[in-house]
Amino acid sequence: MAEISSAVVMKLRKMSGQGMMDCKKALEECNGNLDEAMTILRKKGLATLTKRADKETTEGKVVCVTSSDGKQAAMATLCCETDFVAKTDAFIAAADSMKDFLLACKAENGVDNLLATEKGGKKFSDIITECVSKTGEKTTVGDYAKLSLKGAGHIATYVHFNGKIGVMIEFETSTQAVADNEQFKTIAKDIAMHVAAINPISLDSSGIPADVIEREKAIAADQVKDKPANIIGKIVEGKMNKFFAENCLLQQGFVKEEKVQVQKILADAAKAAGGTAKIIKFVRFAIG
Question: What domain range includes position 35?
């Protein structure tokens, strides 16, 4: 077996980010060939992923990034098994590098699309494998989404301080001047924080699946089945209106001013900025 110098071990360590002993063992297996040693370390990561495939990944970090021109925003969850690994340098580095891949990914959704995105000669799946080989823990991308403005508007983003909840909201405005108004952008950010805290099911009632609405109606009807037949319909309608007010973003009481609906908060902010605005879409990701 060829003697492996400390200089070669250090070089592989800088190339791979792996520990000294792992680098030395890999080099010993291939008689000091750096390329083959890198392949061995990569296989180690893939083997770990296979071995720990059934493990739950309930820790991690929400990563969100906005393009320099503000026209696009993308968000994903990088998940691992334990909070300890989520705080390691290897995991944090993978999360930081994810930002570049998020902006480079052309697809609007689909985890596989993000994993297949290439940047600097590597796919993001390669970054995941390298992270796994360093931490020894399963690491995955749980969710991915990208928003793109098609005209005048603004994309508000918010990641909770614990790093485990993230929100993106696409606003369409009557003019770009409305979207660029600082007070409007502050309200847009506040609405994103509202979504993080309250977790609405949909933007409005049209976005709630028909089976969910039918289920809620059945529950409401069962609760008042002993009431006079001529008023049951009105009572059920009232209960459904309450359900929509509690679960549809536009009808919810604003988290900072509960007696005022989100749609009014938005309308007032846009009017003050000299125009109108509406929410096109929101995305909320949570880990754990």
Answer: 6-51
Domain contains 201: yes
* Total tally of structural domains belonging to the chain: 4
* Domain CATH code at residue 130: 3.30.479.20
Domain match, 60 and 141 both: yes
Q: Phi first, then psi: what are they for 78, rounded to 5°?
A: -105, 115
189 and 221 fall within a common domain: no
Who wins on pLDDT, 23 or 1?
Answer: 23
Q: Answer for the pair 36, 30: CB distance below 8 angstroms, yes or no.
A: yes
| Mean pLDDT of the 233-249 span | 90
CA distance 244 to 250: 9
Query: Considering only CA atoms, which of 179, 247, 183, 187 is closest in space to residue 212?
Result: 247
Per residue in 251-279, pLDDT (tens digit) is 999 999 999 999 999 999 999 999 999 99
Task: Assess if residue 1 is contained within a domain.
Answer: no
Same domain, 42 and 142: no
- Of 248, 254, 238, 252, the residue nearest 208 (C-alpha): 248
The pTM for the full model equals: 0.80
Same domain, residue pair 157 and 202: yes
Residue 23: CB partners within 8 Å, gap ≥ 6? 9, 12, 13, 16, 37, 41
End-to-end CA distance of the chain: 48
Distance in angstroms (rounded) separating the CA atoms of residues 273 and 101: 35
